[in-house]
Structures are given as C-alpha cells and as structure tokens.
C-alpha cells in the first residue's frame, strides 16, 4: 500500500517485575493508511499498551521493541527523545477514556487548547484564540466562547471529551489514537462524539486507531478491525466482514453480548482455549 | 521464625500462593508480602535492628551491665573518662554510665510502650467515631481535638505534670494525653475517605450496627497509617520524656532515665562531656531507629502503595 | 398478590438538588424489573433509597406489604440485598472472601456458617480455592461473583442490582448475567435491575421504566421495547443509539 501512514512490525512491550516478565504486547504487526482502524479485545489484552507504544508514552520501566515502528517512513524507535516529544501532539495525538485525567484541572479549557497549539506552532495569541474557538465549534460545542473560559470540572463528561478532542486536533495531527474515547459516556452522547470524530477524520484525511472493548461499536464505526488476545493479534479483518469472522475468540466475543430482539437464555459464553494465547 | 526448616523453597511458594487454603495461610501470606517489601528497604531494616537491639538490651540489662546502675564508687571512680573498665566513663557519683544507659533503656521502652498503648487507641476511637458519625458528634470531638492541638506538646505536658506532680508515671500520662490528637485527625481523615465506599455500604446493608462497622470494618483500615505515625512519633515521645526528665519533672534521680541523666550531666558538659553526651547519643540512636522503622513501615503497609 | 416493591411519589434531594422528583413504581413478586436512563437520571439513587442508604424526603416505599420508615430493621436486610456497580469498590480491601461472607452470618446469628459459605461459593461458581483470597487476588468477574454470593447468603427475596456488569468485559458479563438468571430461577427472586444498556434490560427483565432527570419517562414491557412500540422520543433515541454507529453522509 502506497498510502501507508504507520507501519508496525513485531511490536513488543515487556514489563520486568519482581515476579517475572509480563509480556503485555507480544509481536503485534499491522499497517495503517488514512483509515479508521479498530483494535478490540478484552481488558488486559494489550490494546492500550500498543497505543501507548506508538505514541511513545510507555511507562519508563517497560521495554519496547519492534522490527519496525515507522510513521510516514520515519523510524520512531531510533529517534531521540526530544524529537519524539515534538512529534507528539504535532503529528500523532491521543485521546484517553476519561478527560478528567488528561485535562489540567486548574487551567481553563480554552487556555489548554491555546497552549497546545502554541507549543507546536508559532502563532500569535489572537490567532491561537481564533483557532481554538473554531476548533471548539468543529467539535460541536454550541457556545464556544463560554466553554473556552470554563474549567474541566465545570463541564459534563461528553463536553469534556469534546474539549479533549479539540485539544488533540488543534495542531492538525496525521494520526490519532483514541483509547476507549467514549466508554465513559452515555450511549446517546457516545454516538455524538463518534460522529464528530468520524467527520474530522474523513475531512482531514487522518489515520485513526480506535481502541475499544466493544466489538459491535467498532464494527459499526471502523473500516478495519484488529482483534487482540493476550498481547497478540488473533485476527485482522474488514469491519464489514466481522460477521464471517473465523477465529473462535472473535466469534465468541460477538455472540456473548445480549441483543435486542434475540432471545438467548443462557447467553453463550466464551470457552477460552489455551492455544489462542500461544 | 525458625529459618532452617525442611523445605524453604516450597514454603515461600506456600506463602505467596494465589489460592490460600486456610485463613491462617491467607494472613501469613499477606504478612509475608509486607515483610518482603519492608526488608527490601535497607535503612528500614537498620531501624528494625536498632529497635530489636533496644529490646534485647532492656530485657538483659542485668546480665549485660558490668556495674550497678545506682550505686557508684564515690571514692575511686568519680567522673572518669571513657576507658576499658568504664566504656562510657563514670558520672559525678562514680556510677558507670554504660551500665546506667543499659538500664535506662528499660525506662525508655516503658515510656514509649505506655504512651503508644494509651494514646493510639484513644486517637483511633475518637477519630473513627467522629469521622463515621459526622454531624454534631464530629463537631464536638474535633473541637476538643483542636484545643489539644493548639498547644505545643511539651508545654501542655509540663502543665499536666505540674498539676499531677513529678514522676515518670505522671510524665507518661501527660505525654499520652497530649499525643492522641494527631492520631484522631489521621483516623478521622482515613475514615472519611472510606465511609462512603461501596464496601462499607455493603456492610450497612447486612444490617450491621454503626458500632460494629467502626470496630470491625473501619478501624482495621486506619490501623496501618496509625502504626506508621506512632512509630514516627516515638522519637518525639522519647525526646519529650527526656525533656521532662531534664527539667526535673519526669523520672527522678537516681532512676537511670536518659533525659534525667543528661540533666544531671549538664554541670560537667564542658570538662566531662561523656556524662551528658553518652545518654544524648543513646537518645539519638533510638530516635533514629524508630524513624527509620516508621519510614519502612510506611512503604510496606501503606495501602496506597499498591495491593498487588 | 402483594407486590414485592411498591413506590409512591418518592422524592430524594441532596441539599437543594432534587435527584428523584416523585417517582412511582410497582414491582410484582418474582418479577424482574429494569431501570434505564442516562447517567445522573437517578437510577442508583432509587435503589439506594429502597435500601435505606439515602433518606427519602417524601413518598412511600413498601416492600412485601410492609411500608418502610426512615430506619430499616435487620429483618428488612434479610428480604432485600444489593449488588453494586463497581466490583473493585464493593469488596473490603483487607478482608478475605471467607471473612466477607461470614460477616452477614455473624450479624444475623446463623449457626451453620461453614456450610452456608461453602454453598454460597458453589452457587456462584467459585470453588473452595477462592475462599481465602483477598479482593486484590480476584478478577473483576470473580469479584462480582463474590458480591453476588454475599448478597444471596442471607437468602433475600429481592435483589437490587446496580449495573452489575457494566464494569466487566462482554464475555465476563455474559457469565455473570447467566449466573443472575440462574439464581433468580432457582430461588424465585425478584430483581430490580439498573442498566444503561437496553439490550441487557430486554435480556434480563420483563418490564422496565425509562428515567430522565429524576423522573419516570415511561413504563414499558420488554416486548414493547423490542417491537419499538414506544411513546416517548427520549426512549426512541435510546433505542436508536443502542443499535450502534450509523454513518450519515
Ligand atoms: N505498569 C505496568 N506494570 C506491569 N504490567 C502492566 C503495566 N501496565 C500494563 N500492564 C500489563 O499489560 C497488559 C496489557 O495492558 P493494557 O494494554 O492496559 O490492556 P487493555 O488496554 O487491553 O485493557 C495487562 O495484562 C497488564 O497486566
Ligand atoms: N450523595 C450525593 N450527593 C449529592 N448529589 C448526589 C449524591 N448522589 C447522587 N447525586 C446526584 O444525583 C443525581 C442522580 O445520581 P444517580 O442516582 O447516581 O444517577 P444514575 O445512577 O442514574 O447515573 C446525579 O446528578 C448525582 O450527581
Ligand atoms: Mg486499556
Ligand atoms: Mg448509577
């Protein structure tokens, strides 16, 4: 594929601990164009650590290695820490599950967006403010001027998550990693936020890695899906072909959720096989 | 613990087992994990060694001390400098300072243990009850606590001893009365954080009485931070006791209490420094020991430092 | 037949904020009743008011024919038990499973504690291997099983379930939902279950109430919901949202 934005080959993340080595990610490979890629799996399957390794936010005690980890042909692992930091926010951005933990509680939302922009681009204060307001509007915040001056605790979860998206998008990144961006939100709000994300991605031609434990949601939102189990990719497929998934784990995950209008008592449960993790 | 039993390796596995088979094993396993965290900390271990040494010395002072702590050789042995015969020298009454310090450790322990036994439970009770009950109970108990906290500890202790009369028992009582308020504060703060947790609600939903909830579910959670705080306070308690002794309001001569010893040695501090210096050094070492131990316990017991 | 739970005009306020604005509700004995609504709509508050964890400002709550006052007696807790949302917060961090399960038995003076604990653990599918573990040695699903065992050990007739699976993975959720259905069938329990997920409510419940801003929006049967036979736009929106993302372009 010529439009490859991100190339990941044999990515591994290991945590040395007192009781032994925890292999959080064990050889994940995929490539991403300007598309929406979903990563799904149960909690602890290594989704977040995969995202964090790409972002360069792995905890310091962990070891990251890969045959290849390249953004637009640039090797991310060989790059000096300073340069990597400059890349974050500028070319790669990440949204986390709970905006409460990623927004600064003592700074107004508007200021945070302006600061983010000004660390990456030389723009005047007035222009930065203009662009921040425009960005808040782009994430469908109705009264951007008012929200600009609010602090994170003064807005609802959905609004906070929109502000977070605005902050992450302000510098115009090419790759966005969203780690369970809507899991803490109500279903209706969740769809609003997804709608915003979807529009921005297609308008700006970004690549999106969408991490979620909700296979159905991912299937309806993404173009392609990676299914992870115990730190490995067990299956990679087009979202539209999810119904024909081959791997019993993927099928199990799909089946075990209750669905409106389908009576199944008891619900089918996942019968984990040791060879899936092998 | 007897270390050299038959299967040392499998016992470690037994302790660290993910699925303990009895109440005992679960409890020991938990203690073992805390112990491993504690003993990984060198300084804390040193603190523990100092405190163990203090205990041993106090227990075997009769055996270890070469001379009597109270009867000296006035004729031949007044104010001798440290030597092979008298390691820390002798005082103005010809008593061997080394022996007096060994016996003095008993008084130090006596003070420390009594204060801990009196002050910590009072603080724990006041703090947990205030924190759990809230409202008026909380307001009244905390105002009382604040009144005690408003005075410097030594001044308040002095006032109590002045009222009760000098003597080591009264000194202990005075220190205990003045040291519980910070414990009450800690226990209250801890109680407030767990009071609204689901696991306490679940116990309320079992129909447990408030008394039972405080005693069996909240107090155990406060105890570790209290133990840490009490241990860290030990140095201060020893110093307060020594201070009272020094001011003539604590232990009375000829009791070999370290503070009192410093007080009586201060007349010779320029020429015969060892008379006041040796007990001062003993206080320093023991205080340091308790401090190191407290720091280590904080790392080992603190629930926030991860329960994995 | 007397209803298991009957609530009339229940008001709950925190300071000046009205969390419940006169909610009425009737749950038949042996029925499974669902509560749905966005977060902050007062679902948990309703359950807590029944359990006596938050005081009611006005209105009445009747459980198995007995109208409740401000205080709940011990007998009440043998009728009504609750399972909380967050399995990581509802187990005491310093107590083993054994100790957690012993507590209700000790409070109510049961003599045959040993067998009851044994039976309760078996019933929720945790063998004896889990009995002496601490909460931090259990996974989320195992914790929720322990919470269910604790709720069942006093043999209540009514179980209040506050989003019991929303913190769990889908696969574990299925196991816990199956377990809940099974114990309900076996013990003929009445469920009052909160969820924000319509699919779970239609799977578990016969009837449901939709809530918004501390008020009841509408009462429905599960089949009405499945057939989209709903009156209110709010419910319709929820229903649409539960079908996943739809690209509009
Ligand atoms: N700081 C850490 N120390 C040790 N192990 C960790 C740490 N962070 C994560 N892990 C391990 O990495 C694995 C994957 O974690 P994560 O990527 O967060 O999973 P997911 O996002 O899929 O729920 C988990 O099994 C976890 O135990
Ligand atoms: N202890 C409390 N003090 C003040 N406000 C509360 C308290 N508990 C709940 N609330 C408020 O009551 C409303 C309803 O909360 P809750 O019943 O938990 O909603 P739900 O369970 O439907 O998400 C929320 O707006 C919440 O902020
Ligand atoms: Mg994660
Ligand atoms: Mg709730």
From TrEMBL, chain A:
GO terms for biological process: transmembrane transport. CDD domains: ABC_NikE_OppD_transporters (cd03257). Keywords: ATP-binding, Cell membrane, Membrane, Nucleotide-binding, Transport. Its main location: membrane. SMART domains: AAA. It is found in: Cell inner membrane. It is a peripheral membrane protein. It comes from the Bacteria. InterPro entries: AAA+_ATPase (IPR003593), ABC_Ni/Peptide_Import (IPR050388), ABC_transporter-like_ATP-bd (IPR003439), P-loop_NTPase (IPR027417). The keyword Glycoprotein does not apply. Residues 6-255 form the ABC transporter domain. One of its GO terms (cellular component) is plasma membrane. Belongs to the ABC transporter superfamily. This is ABC transporter ATP-binding protein. It comes from Mesorhizobium neociceri. The lineage of its organism: Bacteria, Pseudomonadati, Pseudomonadota, Alphaproteobacteria, Hyphomicrobiales.
TrEMBL record, chain B:
It comes from the Bacteria. Residues 109-294 form the ABC transmembrane type-1 domain. GO terms for cellular component: plasma membrane. Keywords: Cell membrane, Membrane, Peptide transport, Protein transport, Transmembrane, Transmembrane helix, Transport. Pfam families: BPD_transp_1, OppC_N. GO terms for biological process: peptide transport; protein transport; transmembrane transport. The chain crosses the membrane at residues 43-65, 107-133, 154-179, 227-252, 272-294. InterPro entries: ABC_transport_permease (IPR053385), BP-dependent_transpt_permease (IPR050366), MetI-like (IPR000515), MetI-like_sf (IPR035906), OppC_N (IPR025966). Gene3D superfamilies: MetI-like. NCBIfam families: Opp2C. Belongs to the binding-protein-dependent transport system permease family. OppBC subfamily. This is ABC transporter permease.
TrEMBL record, chain C:
It holds the Pfam family ABC_tran. The keyword Transmembrane helix does not apply. GO terms for molecular function: ATP binding; ATP hydrolysis activity. CDD domains: ABC_NikE_OppD_transporters (cd03257). The keyword Transferase does not apply. Residues 5-238 form the ABC transporter domain. One of its GO terms (biological process) is transmembrane transport. It comes from the Bacteria. Keywords: ATP-binding, Nucleotide-binding, Transport. InterPro entries: AAA+_ATPase, ABC_transp_ATP-bind, ABC_transporter-like_ATP-bd, ABC_transporter-like_CS, P-loop_NTPase. Belongs to the ABC transporter superfamily. PANTHER family: D,D-DIPEPTIDE TRANSPORT ATP-BINDING PROTEIN DDPF-RELATED, TRANSPORT ATP-BINDING PROTEIN. This is ABC transporter ATP-binding protein. It comes from Mesorhizobium neociceri.
């Amino acid at each position: 594929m010529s439009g490859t934005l991100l190339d990941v080959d044999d990515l591994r993340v290991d945590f040395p601990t007192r009781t032994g080595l925890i292999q959080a990610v064990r050889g994940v490979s995929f490539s991403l164009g300007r598309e929406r890629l979903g990563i799904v799996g149960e909690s602890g399957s290594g989704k977040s650590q995969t995202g964090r390794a790409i972002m360069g936010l792995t905890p310091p005690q962990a070891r990251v290695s890969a045959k290849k980890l390249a953004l637009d042909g640039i090797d991310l692992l060989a790059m000096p820490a300073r340069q990597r930091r400059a890349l974050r926010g500028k070319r790669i951005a990440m949204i986390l599950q709970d905006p409460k933990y990623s927004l600064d509680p003592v700074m107004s939302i508007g200021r945070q967006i302006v600061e983010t922009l000004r660390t990456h681009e030389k723009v005047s204060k007035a222009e930065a403010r203009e662009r921040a307001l425009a960005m808040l509007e782009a994430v469908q915040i109705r009264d951007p001027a008012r929200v600009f001056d609010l602090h994170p605790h003064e807005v609802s979860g959905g609004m906070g998550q929109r502000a977070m998206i605005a902050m992450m998008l302000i510098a115009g990144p090419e790759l966005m990693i969203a780690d369970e961006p809507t899991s803490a939100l109500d279903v209706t709000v969740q769809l609003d936020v997804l709608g915003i994300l979807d529009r921005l991605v297609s308008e700006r031609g970004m690549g999106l890695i969408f991490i979620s434990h909700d296979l159905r949601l991912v299937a309806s939102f993404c173009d392609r899906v990676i299914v992870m189990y115990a730190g490995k990719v067990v299956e990679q497929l087009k979202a539209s072909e999810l119904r024909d998934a081959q791997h019993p784990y993927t099928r199990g995950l799909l089946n075990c959720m209750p669905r409106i209008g389908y009576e199944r008592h008891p619900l089918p449960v996942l019968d984990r096989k040791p060879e899936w993790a092998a | 613990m007897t270390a050299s039993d038959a299967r040392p390796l499998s016992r470690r596995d037994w302790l660290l087992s993910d699925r303990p088979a009895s109440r005992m094993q679960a409890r020991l396993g938990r203690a073992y994990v805390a112990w491993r965290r504690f003993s990984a900390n060198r300084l804390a271990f040193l603190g523990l060694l100092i405190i163990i040494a203090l205990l041993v010395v106090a227990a075997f002072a009769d055996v270890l001390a070469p001379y009597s702590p109270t009867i000296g050789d006035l004729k031949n042995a007044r104010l001798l400098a440290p030597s092979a015969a008298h390691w820390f020298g002798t005082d103005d009454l010809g008593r061997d300072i080394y022996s007096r310090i060994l016996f003095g450790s008993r008084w130090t322990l006596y003070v420390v243990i009594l204060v801990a036994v009196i002050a910590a439970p009072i603080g724990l009770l006041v703090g947990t009850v205030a924190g759990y009950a809230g409202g008026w109970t909380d307001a009244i108990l905390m105002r009382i606590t604040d009144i005690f906290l408003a005075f410097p500890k030594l001044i308040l202790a002095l006032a109590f001893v002045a009222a009760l009369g000098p003597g080591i028992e009264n000194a202990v009582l005075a220190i205990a009365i003045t040291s519980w308020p910070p414990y009450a504060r800690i226990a209250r703060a801890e109680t407030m954080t767990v009071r609204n947790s689901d696991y306490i609600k679940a116990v309320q939903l079992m129909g447990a009485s408030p008394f039972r909830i405080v005693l069996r579910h909240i107090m155990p959670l406060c105890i570790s931070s209290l133990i840490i705080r009490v241990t860290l306070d030990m140095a201060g308690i020893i110093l307060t006791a020594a201070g009272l002794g020094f001011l003539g309001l604590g232990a009375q001569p000829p009791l070999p209490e370290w503070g009192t010893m410093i007080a009586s040695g201060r007349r010779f501090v320029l020429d015969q420094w060892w008379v006041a210096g040796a007990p001062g050094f003993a206080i320093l070492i023991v205080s340091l020991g308790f401090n190191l131990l407290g720091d280590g316990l904080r790392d080992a017991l603190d629930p926030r430092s991860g329960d994995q | 037949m007397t209803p298991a739970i009957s609530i009339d005009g229940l008001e709950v306020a925190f300071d000046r904020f009205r969390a419940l604005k006169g909610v009425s509700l009737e749950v038949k004995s042996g029925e499974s009743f669902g509560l749905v609504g966005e977060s902050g709509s007062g679902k948990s508050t309703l359950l807590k008011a029944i359990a006596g964890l938050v005081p009611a400002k006005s209105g009445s709550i009747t459980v198995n024919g007995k109208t409740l006052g401000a205080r709940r007696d011990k007998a009440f807790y043998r009728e009504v038990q609750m399972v909380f949302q967050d399995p990581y917060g509802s187990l005491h961090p310093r107590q083993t499973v054994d100790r957690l399960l012993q507590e209700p038995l000790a409070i109510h003076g049961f003599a045959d504690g040993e067998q009851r604990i044994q039976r309760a653990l078996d019933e929720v599918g945790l063998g004896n291997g889990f009995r002496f573990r601490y909460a931090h040695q259990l996974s989320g699903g195992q914790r929720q099983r322990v919470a269910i065992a604790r709720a069942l050990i006093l043999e209540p007739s009514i179980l209040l379930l506050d989003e019991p699976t929303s913190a769990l993975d889908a696969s574990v959720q299925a196991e816990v939902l199956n377990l809940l259905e099974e114990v309900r069938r076996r013990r003929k329990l009445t469920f009052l279950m909160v969820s924000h997920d319509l699919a779970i409510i239609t799977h578990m419940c016969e009837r449901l109430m939709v809530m918004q801003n501390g008020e009841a929006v509408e009462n429905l049967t599960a089949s009405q919901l499945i057939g989209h036979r709903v009156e209110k736009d709010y419910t319709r929106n929820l229903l649409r949202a539960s079908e996943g993302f739809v690209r509009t372009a």
